Description:
Rossmann fold, five-stranded parallel sheet, about 25% strand
Amino acid sequence: xxxxxxxxxxxxxxxxxxxxxxxxxxxxxxxxxxxxxxxxxxxxxxxxxxxxxxxxxxxxxxxxxxxxxxxxxxxxxxxxxxxxxxxxxxxxxxxxxxxxxxxxxxxxxxxxxxxxxxxxxxxxxxxxxxxxxxxxxxxxxxxxxxxxxxxxxxxxxxxxxxxxxxxxxxxxxxxxxxxxxxxxxxxxxxxxxxxxxxxxxxxxxxxxxxxxxxxxxxxxxxxxxxxxxxxxxxxxxxxxxxxxxxxxxxxxxxxxxxxxxxxxxxxxxxxxxxxxxxxxxxxxxxxxxxxxxxxxxxxxxxxxxxxxxxxxxxxxxxxxxxxxxxxxxxxxxxxxxxxxxxxxxxxxxxxxxxxxxxxxxxxxxxxxxxxxxxxxxxxxxxxxxxxxxxxxxxxxxxxxxxxxxxxxxxxxxxxxxxxxxxxxxxxxxxxxxxxxxxxxxxxxxxxxxxxxxxxxxxxxxxxxxxxxxxxxxxxxxxxxxxxxxxxxxxxxxxxxxxxxxxxxxxxxxxxxxxxxxxxxxxxxxxxxxxxxxxxxxxxxxxxxxxxxxxxxxxxxxxxxxxxxxxxxxxxxxxxxxxxxxxxxxxxxxxxxxxxxxxxxxxxxxxxxxxxxxxxxxxxxxxxxxxxxxx
Length: 630
């Protein structure tokens, strides 16, 4: 597959991809190693919904990420690991070494009885062993479920029990921003409620000597180091499960999004190479965590399948100082840098001297992910990091889409700050009005949907296909509803305006309002809660909680602290509410529905016009909430 060379080339390829999608993706898929070629490119029906790509094709994704590179680039760096503490030396892992380690971990899993189709929970910090674990699961056909190592034991229980994991891979602990986190203790707290787990493998990361349960717990060095370094890759059907990744829903229970082998591999590789215009030998750094889809697609599977050198970063951008990112770019001569608007906004507040003392001349392309980037941050990023010489690839996509959907193409697309710009070849967006009518002109605003399948789309919610149908395919029948609003301007460029459902995007991570409300309600002083998002200078969106208590708090700040700790314990620190307003009631309709529209206006500071409140059971409660706004 040749990379897109110009805007005219993009228009032609896009036209081809829409007029004959099956021919387009058939040609892209020929670039990979298949054990057996597909019989049919696509079968689909959005009414069910059912989507199958490369039907009958057999493959193993790790042969495409590892084995096929060994002859030509076995000694090339596959992974550069940048440790949490910059005093520790970075580590480089070649493709040959990565292949060997993945095979050893794969054989270890087989020795513990893990087989094709079994689910494995991976709860680890951003260390090379996390990459080995993910790829080892794919090697033997086990389904990996990576859980972000900032989540609590309660969140771990939900994810392990929903997917029925038989094994957990973790570490004794982690170091993050100079703080130690006892991951093994969190796992131990979760496992009494996880009857399907038979074995736990623990990597000795911070040497904390946690208790080990005989017959269940194994040290990584005991069971991996002695394992053979050759492991044949399991033959997988194109539609076999590759991984389950949980994302917050607008109801309390997280959704286990299911991604499969063949279509995901083809699309992630294509979008990585196309959007960034990746060139042989370049160093690519995506600052995300492997606990999120960004890490799956654009730290591991996309770059490795393209034979790239990918950076895994264990630390945080502000520790030990605000120059951490820029120092690492200089140290590793990074060519493509892909990060979140949240990180950019926080680093923007630091003295520019942190940037100016580092040599960023290796950079060729910049990227943005997780949420729409605001214009001020876009310009700061462009001027100070890219020196007005690096295109900013502002990618729009989701856990559910698997890979980039609407994004500029480096050095091809004319950029427009804060706009995701145009759909990639193979992506067919449609803007809908509230009545379900497609708005076909430019210069419109509405709901963003996709009207034709693409290879990396999620196939279902694990164990709950009806919820998958209801959530994504019932609002606009025959189309995938993204849950996002958008504007399409006069040039046909897309600008994402944010969620239209009950999801808050905090620092690029989806938080379901119901999940946060449920956690707050666990505090014994709380009767009922309503949570909404509001604009936050650093995070993009903050969490604003309106809380009814059994009795008026004696100490507001003390109770706020307790509620935040309750949320941190149940979900994780990332979900702590930024603002907690104690109220005597919530604006409810006579049917009992909370009018979140009103609460959003209060949280956003739009206090002059609350709209029609006549349908509320107690309109006076709105006045009280407005007066008490934080």
